[in-house]
Amino acid sequence: MERDIINKLNNFKDKHILVIGDFILDAYVDTQCERLAPEASVPVLDITKTTYSLGGAANVAYNLEKLGSKVSLLTVLGQDDNSKKAIQLFKSNPQKSLYLHFSAEDQTLCKTRIHKDGQLLYRLDEGKHLTLENDQMDLFLKDLRELYLKCDAVYIADYNKGAIHYKVIDLLEELKSMVYKPIVIDSKNYLQYRNIQPCIIKPNYKEALELTHEKAHNDRIKQAPYLTDKLMEISKAKLVALTLDKDGVYVSRRNGSQFHIETCQVEVQNSSGAGDIFLSTLLLNHLVEIDDINAAKIACQAASIGIQKEATAHCTWEELKASLIQESGKVIINSENLAELVKIKGQDKTVVLTTGCFDIFHSGHATFLKQAKEQGDILIVGINIDESIARLKGPDRPVNTLMDRMEVLKALSYIDYIVPFGDQDDTPISLIKTIKPHVFVKGEDYQSTVTPEKKTLMSLGIKQVFIPLVPHQSTTKIINRVQGNTINLKKIG
Q1: Is residue 56 within a helix (H) or strand (E), and if so which, with residue range?
Q2: With CB atoms 3.0 to 4.6 Å apart as the test, which of 287, 364, 399, 414 could cross-link to 470 if both were Cys?
Q3: Given this model, what pLDDT does residue 41 score?
Q4: Residues 6+ positions from 392 with CB-CB distance below 8 Å
Q5: Is 114:120 a contact under the CB 8 Å cutoff?
């Protein structure tokens, strides 16, 4: 992905999101089964571990924080043991600004998932709906009015559990008419929000069918444009992101573009919260002015990162940025992108840089690079582009093109990243200044030479290591041997 788009992710930290919605406490119970109960001949599940995490609107706030933004959470809890557990979790994660209101009679919503050997067996739900007394509702609305004026956007997480009262919707409509703020909505009933005219809504396929009263279609992607048009009519939303599970996401903008984004095929550990990641990332992308297509791609990438984790899914800013930079694999074309990736992934690790042409790859190269890797944890290979080699070695070089040479290096397991250089300067000086490795490796034949980069290495405090070369192995010698031999080719057959 282009660097200017990736750089816009840095602006996530400047955005303040108000999250309003239903709080859910997620409980995960790991069990094992080794016997049957004698009284009923049913399996006995022995609990091995129980963990709790913030779900619902709190998980949305958690994901927005992990993506780097400031967050205020306005939600409702009961007055029970699950409420106490929730407050303890909030205390252990104090970054967000909390505005908690309490229902006098109702239970805090809790979803308990029981697993055996990683397989979900049952889900047990506590609590159905929370209501606030009139005085508590007045305080809730007072907080909403004050927080709205301070935030950059509003995220409504409506699970139809009571936090989003009709008075909340009416007040948002009033506030938006006075001061525009983007409002994104995740709900099971978008009709009630049509007067707000949301910036983005994110129904899934099942919800879309229920809202539009349509029947399921064998080709969901083909049906998607019709469904999103009807959803825009129902909700008055500016943009609809229709999630289609394994079939990806179909995005439609009112009087604008329509497109389909395929999802990455990854191992799913837990899909709970994937939609929250997607919409959270999509909102932040919108706020930092990333175009719709790239915004949807980035949001899908964030969701794919999240669902590979155990418990409730989440994606951090660092993980997302590193993933976007590294989407092409080992080869990172832009050295500044590589520097950013190394900064994220190279914490507490020794970064090693070496450079060369690596034209006709031979055993000397293989041995040299393997020993270079032994100098640290992350090995980066800077490789001269074709034009640079021609300037250094003469017009008959390189023998192999840059793409062919990089393809060979990609196959080596001990190389972590490859970056081309030499478009303006044939020395590795600019590469060293950009990446700032801990160790710079050269062959021992350079040990007695004052190299162009030596002054830069010393000024930056970078250690230089010289590695012994394999005797009689060099690209030039191989070329000379080939040119010095007469090769007779016989026709076969």
Answers
A1: strand 43-56
A2: 364
A3: 85
A4: 357, 384, 426
A5: yes
**Among 271, 258, 264, 262, residue whose Cα is nearest residue 231:** 258
Token representation of residue 438: 């801990």
Give the pLDDT confidence score for residue 274 in this predicted structure: 84
Residue with tokens 């239903």: 22
> Which residue segment(s) compose the domain that 70 sits in?
3-325
Return d(Cα 136, Cα 76) in angstroms, integer. Answer: 10
Residue type, 190: Y
Residue 320 shares a structural domain with residue 208: yes
Give the chain's domain count: 2
Same domain flag for 46 and 143:
yes
Alpha helices in 205-291 (DSSP H): 205-212, 220-235, 274-287
Alpha helix ranges (H) inside 111-219: 134-150, 166-178, 205-212
In what helix (H) or strand (E) does residue 82 lie, and over which residues does it extend? Answer: helix 81-92
**If 0-12 CB within 10 Å is exposed, 13-18 middle and 19+ buried, where does residue 348 land?**
exposed
| 3-state SS string for 272-307 | CCHHHHHHHHHHHHHHCCCCHHHHHHHHHHHHHHHC
- The reported pLDDT for the residue numbered 490 is 43
- The residues, ordered by sequence, that sit 6+ positions from 50 with a Cβ below 8 Å of its Cβ are 27, 28, 29, 30
Percentage helix, strand, coil, to 5, in the chain? 40, 25, 35
State the Cα–Cα distance between residues 410 and 55, nearest whole angstrom. Answer: 41
Q: Residues in the chain with pLDDT < 50?
A: 486-493
Residue 472: what pLDDT? 58
* CB distance 292 to 239 below 8 Å: yes
Residues, the chain: 493
Choose, from 22, 26, 186, 276, the residue flagged as catalytic: 276
Residue 269 maps to which CATH number?
3.40.1190.20
Q: What integer pLDDT is reported at residue 477 of this predicted model? A: 61
CB-based contacts of 180, cutoff 8 Å, min separation 6? none
Residue 358's Cβ-count burial label (10 Å; 0-12, 13-18, 19+) is: buried
Q: What is the CATH number of the domain that holds 387?
A: 3.40.50.620
Judgement on whether residues 100 and 224 belong to the same structural domain of the protein: yes
How far are the Cα atoms of 387, 438, 439, 445, 474 from residue 426, in angstroms, in the given order? 9, 21, 20, 19, 20
Q: Are strands 351-356 and 258-261 parallel, antiparallel or unpaired?
A: unpaired
Domain boundary among 296, 325, 354: 325
Question: How far is 406 from 404, CA to CA, in rounded Å?
Answer: 6
- Let me know if residue 330 belongs to a domain: no
Look at residues 325, 348, 371 and tell me which one is the last residue of a structural domain: 325
| The pLDDT of residue 424 | 79
Residue 340 is predicted with a pLDDT of 86
Measured on CA atoms in the order 446, 451, 456, 458, is the torsion positive or negative?
positive
Distance CA 95, CA 48 (A): 30
- The model's pTM is 0.80
Check if 276 is active-site: yes
